[in-house]
Specification:
By secondary structure, the chain is mainly α. The protein has one domain. About 80% of the residues lie in helices and about 0% in strands.
């Protein structure tokens, strides 16, 4: 396995490790709250201390705020699964882009400037489209959960607005449902296929 492959495998391992660790803490919090353990005991206190920074932003969600039950752990589990799935997908796209950049460099070194430029531009565009798709998906998720703070969240919102705003004039809502994000994701998929056909085949 190449050095690049080892680095990306390590990143995948870190992502899985963070997912398992945070999910374990949140599930332990659900057990502690469900069993109504003494909050001053060392284990419940530790679990509450570790889990509260993860759950507090989600308690601002209107659904969680108005419910009799603490829905923040459930919302966190859904969000964590989505982050893991799309994080692994993005790492796969990033790995493919790095390999593509390496191939482009080889073509440039051999003097095949046209093929090198095609590979370089194609993989840059695919990586940007992958980021755009993540912004669309998590823009919808963050609006549902009610997350608006944090640098990464603000970047997602920035990308989400710039991608979906031009389509809002073309795609009317159906009742209470805004179909713009779905249309935007479909357009991005078509663009990815177009880039594959034009630049990488």
């Amino acid at each position: 396995m190449s050095v690049v492959g080892i680095v990306f495998e390590a990143l995948r391992g870190l992502l899985w490790g963070a997912f398992v660790l945070t999910l374990g803490v949140v599930i332990a919090r659900m057990v502690v709250d469900g069993l109504r353990l003494n909050p001053f005991g060392w284990f419940p206190y530790l679990i509450r201390r570790w889990s509260e920074p993860l759950l507090m932003p989600l308690r601002r969600n209107p659904l969680a705020f108005s419910s009799r039950y603490d829905l923040a752990p459930v919302l966190f589990i859904i969000l964590a699964i989505l982050i893991l799935a799309f994080g692994l997908h993005f790492l796969g796209d990033a790995y493919r882009a790095v390999v593509g950049f390496g191939l482009a460099a080889r073509f440039f070194a051999r003097g095949d400037l046209g093929l090198g430029a095609r590979y370089f531009i194609g993989h840059v565009l695919l990586l940007l489209l992958s980021v755009a798709m993540i912004c669309v998906v998590f823009g919808v998720v963050f609006s549902w959960i009610g997350l608006y703070r944090g640098r990464l969240v603000r970047f997602v919102w920035w990308g989400f607005e710039r991608i979906t705003r031009p389509l809002r004039r073309l795609v009317p809502p159906v009742g209470l449902f805004d179909l713009t994000p779905l249309a935007a994701y479909f357009v991005l998929l078509l663009l990815s296929w177009f880039v594959e056909v034009v630049f990488l085949r």
